């Protein structure tokens, strides 16, 4: 009614609800919501000036070719909040199909014809889930197919990871780990990682000076339609095992892990320690010597703090 139309709240929507994300395939669309939209629509995550605003952002589930459309019931005449320009700014330039759904479907179907998974030489792990085969590949942004796919999917770091920002794609140090369903070629999730040189000095256990590399997990995500099926654990273990094999990597770290990631990391690190039989080798004498901790920690390539936390959990678990 006219009276309610005068109230500002009837023209204000949460950008987290207005943005509707979807993955599309032959069977239809899976829709889900972003956790964060402040990097695109501002800290208050509110959009003023529209009624029943829907910001539709769809991706082909194989090529991630993006589609954008805006729908609303009404718009205030003097509003210059341009929801489209703001979204397009964080999507690859010239790549997004706006409004024309038929053109978008044609475009991704054509792209699918030549869409290939990374080469066999990039394969670092494989697993089966619910009868489907998945492979984790280690790739980098010098590969133009990877670069294209990454440009399209990196917007999900903004939508799903708090305080995420885009990585510098011209920095050749970035290594990406990507998990694909090899049957339908859909990417279920990925992680960006970087190896940093670290000067050890006398800090090192054997006290000979050396520089070593720290493998850092920077952004890590499983796309919402594929979450809670163990893909996160598989991806994390694939990265970890890759770095266990890599003699240049001294320890594995994680940039700003959130609670969910901490839980995933603890579960998998604990399992790795447990399976190794370390529980039976924990010295009886307390406090446990720094030397023992350092030897074990470095064998498992865990950070000292993380290793100590896990040790406490193991002690609790095995003593109960
Ligand atoms: N069947 C049913 N449930 C399962 C199965 C299975 N086969 N396997 C695991 N689960 C359960 C786990 O027990 C776990 O339960 P919990 O949440 O109660 O502890 C849950 O599913 C999640 O475990 P996974 O499936 O291994 O993890 P998932 O694939 O869902 O990935 C992640 C977890 C990465 C946090 C994902 O939810 C995500 O991407 N979230 C959004 C982005 C994000 O938060 N990323 C981390 C930011 S921090 C950083 O980037 C460094």
Question: Helix amount, in percent?
Answer: 25-40%
Bound molecules: acetyl coenzyme *A
Global geometry: globular
CATH topology of the largest domain: Aminopeptidase
Helix tally equals 11
Indicate the CATH architecture of the largest domain. Answer: 3-Layer(aba) Sandwich
Describe the fold and architecture.
By secondary structure, the chain is of the alpha+beta class. The protein folds into three domains: 2-113, Histone Acetyltransferase, domain 1 (Alpha-Beta Complex); 116-256, 3-Layer(aba) Sandwich (Aminopeptidase); 258-320, Orthogonal Bundle (Arc Repressor Mutant, subunit A). It contains eleven helices and 15 strands. The chain has helices at 2-5, 15-18, 38-41, 83-88, 101-113, 144-153, 155-160, 231-245, 259-276, 290-300, 304-319; strands spanning 12-14, 19-25, 28-32, 46-48, 50-51, 54-60, 66-71, 74-75, 97-98, 123-129, 132-139, 175-181, 186-199, 211-222, 249-254. The strands form four sheets. It has a six-stranded mixed sheet. A five-stranded mixed sheet has the order 3-2-6-7-9. A two-stranded antiparallel ribbon has the order 1-4. Helix 8 (231-245) links the parallel strand 14 and strand 15 (249-254). Helix 9 packs across helix 11. The radius of gyration is 23 Å and the shape is globular. It starts with a helix and ends with a helix. Acetyl coenzyme *A is lined by residues 160-161, 217, 219-222, 227-233, 254-255, 257-258, 260-261, 263-264.
